[in-house]
Amino acid sequence: MANRIFVALDTPDLDRARALAQKVRHHVGGIKLGLEFFCAHGPSGIRAIEEIGLPVFLDLKLHDIPNTVAKAVQSLAGLAPAVLTVHASGGRAMLEDAKAAAHPSTKVVAVTMLTSLDEDDLAATGVAGSAHDHVLRLADLAREAGLDGIVCSGAEVKAAHAAWPKGYFVVPGVRPADGELGDQKRVVTPRMAADHGASMLVIGRPITRAENPDAAARAIAATL
Ligand SMILES: O=C(O)c1cc(=O)[nH]c(=O)n1[C@@H]1O[C@H](COP(=O)(O)O)[C@@H](O)[C@H]1O
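Above: query sequence and orotidine-5'-monophosphate SMILES. Below: predicted holo structure tokens.
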């Protein structure tokens, strides 16, 4: 199977992003660029990283009224990212319109419950019940809206995959056994995420903050 690791290059520094991507390119399957990078460099920054030759996941987690999200997705369609994120909690119409506006080759995936949240955080937003149930409910919504898949933690991916065998499952919040959690709360090891059905593992700081990012990416890939 192709390398399922997408390295998250969370930096506003284009030269650093490019240098990191060059270092790890032989040990990852793709590159994830998110808000930090996009706010600093926009579409031209995405094109600059695309030149490295790996698939790009554009993680903007769009969440607004359907018309606004659809127009934003339409504006991004020329970039034809391999994967694009929207928030599942934006609701069915927003999800349907986002998918309709995307480039046909782009997988549109819905963020369910951020891996930086636990059930106390969920309750504080007014959602009762478990993380598991919340993720499964939003996965159903994404599937019914015609999306390609979801983003969830490794704790839920097995159940989500069982309920949606053809879905595409993006799993962030991935840490090697001795890895620092940082702001992540629902974490699993790379091996567990892969064994439980992740289509893509998003890994940032365990690679980008390592003394030798190339060796860190290689070591993680070797565990899969
Ligand atoms: O959509 C995402 O990629 C995402 C969703 C989520 O629930 N949690 C999450 O951490 N992410 C992203 O995954 C990356 C995780 O980075 P690290 O915690 O450094 O490995 C970051 O770029 C986050 O923006």
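The radius of gyration is 16 Å.
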